[in-house]
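Quiz preparation item.
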């Protein structure tokens, strides 16, 4: 097949891309229809501009779009890239090789100025999307509030300001569109998991036994004081009455 194309991995069907814009989704009016419940009716667009091909997530699906496993808002595609629309996987082919870094080609030139608290909100918002899961939705305002130990109302105010700074228009799945934009710009990075050692419940006798063992002595049986085989302290030399 001449020209760029997309192969649907589940069915093996090969679909050529249109010369300008190819729409992808579950709806009847799209160019490439994916019969998968995780795909929205209008999920994404694949755009051709000269020798370049890039995918644009429409922000209308909670499951988002990924390229080679990483969530994106817009990204230049290369031959052999795996594009996931929700859980539907497709492989790109027939794309001319160009000297382009796909990770940065479509980022904004300058990121908006952010406060430290806004960075915290964005990091918490995108944390689920940067996990190892196949696809997840960004965190809700309630989850962000619990993560940052602030009120849900405060988080919503921060999100409203972030929508304005990143020029995210009103509409469905606004949080998802914001998260995709932030991840595409590389403003957040996955955080290493925090390991919290499990605390074992210990009875008072357990703690006392451990303390005695650390001192290099064997523990005494319950109900006895002093060293084994000797009378308690203060009774040495005492005659029986």
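Solution:
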């Amino acid at each position: 097949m001449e020209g760029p194309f997309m192969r649907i991995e589940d069915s093996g069907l090969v679909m050529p891309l249109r010369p300008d814009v190819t729409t992808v989704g579950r709806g009847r009016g799209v160019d490439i229809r994916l019969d998968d419940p995780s795909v929205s009716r209008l999920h994404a667009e694949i755009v051709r501009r000269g020798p370049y091909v890039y995918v644009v997530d429409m922000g209308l699906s909670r499951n988002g779009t990924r390229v080679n496993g990483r969530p994106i808002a817009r990204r230049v595609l290369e031959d052999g890239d795996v594009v996931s629309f929700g859980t539907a996987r497709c492989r790109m082919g027939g794309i001319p090789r160009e000297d382009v870094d796909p990770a940065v080609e479509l980022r904004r030139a300058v990121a908006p100025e952010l406060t430290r608290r806004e960075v915290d909100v964005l990091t918490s918002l995108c944390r689920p999307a940067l996990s190892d899961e196949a696809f997840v939705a960004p965190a809700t305002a309630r989850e962000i509030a619990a993560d940052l130990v602030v009120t849900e109302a405060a988080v919503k105010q921060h999100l409203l300001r972030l929508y304005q700074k990143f020029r995210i228009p009103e509409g469905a799945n606004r949080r998802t569109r914001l998260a995709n934009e932030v991840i595409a710009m590389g403003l957040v990075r996955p955080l290493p998991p925090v390991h919290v050692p499990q605390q074992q419940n210990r009875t008072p006798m357990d703690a006392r036994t451990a303390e005695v063992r650390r001192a290099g002595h064997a523990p005494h049986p319950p109900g006895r004081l002093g060293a084994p085989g000797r009378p308690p302290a203060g009774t040495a030399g005492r005659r029986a009455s």
